[in-house]
Write a structure and sequence with these properties.
25% helix; alpha+beta; single chain; globular
Length: 197
């Protein structure tokens, strides 16, 4: 990845400007052809109207017109694509069905401002590590935030974890495939190794 620090700052300022939004999953990625981009996704547990409102609010700030269409058979979604500062933003609703047995969205204790603050706090951690990441995902889980990085090799995972407090007791810790650690921000970091990328 490249330009991660700029992207983190740009998206934090976008969230500040938009104000109150539902819990979001924000993915920082890089396309070989289009360069760096950010996907801002709403949780599938929300009604489409509530998800659409978040996409519309982002669309207003980035000066773009959202598109609505069928994304899964019989399920509709909205998306918008545009630039905020120097970052390409893609905001989308999540059309995945809420199946029985799947947990509902917990009562929210997090805020959009806290998400923006977390993005800003990651700027200090990211500079020496962005070259090792293929994707960085910041997820508001309604009660806490989680950070997840995806890499293509175990040595890249080790580079991301350097200097962090490892969480080797976690059931999510599987050397060679998945690691967990504590970021300097106090948030949990999980790192997945995906050699097929």
């Amino acid at each position: 990845m490249r330009d991660l620090m700029r992207q983190l700052g740009d998206v934090a300022r976008l969230l500040d400007d938009v104000g109150l939004l539902p819990p979001l999953e924000i993915t920082f990625a890089h396309d070989p052809d289009d360069g760096p981009y950010v996907i801002v996704a709403t949780p599938h547990q929300l009604e489409l109207a509530d998800q659409r409102l978040a996409v519309d609010q982002i669309a207003t700030r980035i000066g773009a017109v959202p598109k609505v269409g069928e994304v899964l058979r019989g399920r509709y979604g909205a998306s918008v694509r545009g630039r905020w500062a120097n970052t390409l933003i893609v905001a989308v609703t999540n059309a995945a069905p809420q199946l029985s047995g799947m947990p509902d969205l917990p009562i929210r204790t997090t805020t959009t401002r806290e998400t923006a603050d977390l993005l800003r706090s990651l700027i200090a951690w990211a500079p020496r590590r962005q070259q090792h990441m293929d994707e960085l995902v910041v997820k508001d889980r309604s009660r806490a935030h989680a950070v997840h990085a995806i890499v293509t090799a175990d040595d890249a995972a080790q580079s991301l974890l350097e200097g962090l407090v490892p969480d080797t007791d976690s059931v999510g810790h599987r050397p060679g495939r998945r690691y967990r650690a504590l970021l300097p921000t106090g948030h949990a970091l999980s790192v997945s190794v995906d050699s097929l990328r």
